[in-house]
Design a protein that fits this description.
By secondary structure, this protein is mainly α. It has one domain: Intergrase catalytic core (hpI Integrase, Chain A, Orthogonal Bundle). The protein is built from 9 helices and 3 strands. The chain has a 3-stranded antiparallel β-sheet, with no helix packed on it. Helix 2 runs parallel beside helix 6. The model has no long low-confidence stretch (mean pLDDT about 80).
Length: about 190
């Protein structure tokens, strides 16, 4: 799991002055802010973005559950910047594409953990056995942050696209802040 300031630091080191940086920034921001699974992000098409109503709508690959998420302003602007100024003009309905030959839609085999590790190094963020270096860790961080902000399980489950509130509990078991609230005071031991 990541701390909020670590996610901000990770995003801040991405060079958005080049096409792949614009793509990477948009992808990482979407996962960090909306909790979309990487497979669903790779399958995201232009038709999934409802610009007029500020929504992203798609059917999740894992659950086949239709989900509607808000198109947050920062996410919308990152998408616009990538689509208008970074995305290669290739004939595919998919938003995210590779920037090396052969040009094609991004897929789950495109080494997203390598992308995260690259930006972690640039941000001087250490990777440890407790900090996973992949997109799913950002999804986990979003769920935990929502829980720490006292969002109820139904909201967290809705954002993550879970059918059951119980599914969200797997994401919430490592919240140090919430575990601190459960700590019991230990009385002094008399001699």
């Amino acid at each position: 799991m990541w701390q909020h300031n670590e996610v901000l630091k990770l995003l801040s080191v991405i060079d958005r002055g080049n096409p792949s940086g614009k793509r990477d920034y948009a992808m990482i921001l979407i996962v960090a802010r909306l909790g979309i699974r990487i497979g669903d992000l790779c399958r995201m098409q232009f038709q999934n973005i409802d610009w007029r109503n500020s929504k992203i709508e798609f059917t999740q690959g894992k659950t086949q559950y239709k989900i509607t998420l808000p198109l947050l302003k920062d996410v919308g602007w990152a998408l616009i910047d990538y689509i208008q100024n970074g995305r290669l003009n290739i004939d595919t309905p998919y938003i995210f594409v590779t920037h090396v030959v052969p040009f094609k839609p991004f897929d789950e085999s495109n080494h997203h953990s390598r992308m995260i590790k690259k930006y972690m190094q640039l941000a001087h963020l250490p990777y440890t056995h407790t900090k996973k270096c992949d997109m799913h860790a950002l999804r986990h961080t979003l769920a935990t942050t929502m829980h720490e902000n006292h969002e109820d399980y139904s909201n967290i489950s809705a954002v993550l696209g879970h059918r059951s509130e119980d599914s969200a509990s797997a994401y919430l078991k490592t919240s140090v802040e919430l575990l601190r609230e459960c700590a019991l005071e230990i009385p002094e031991v008399s001699e």
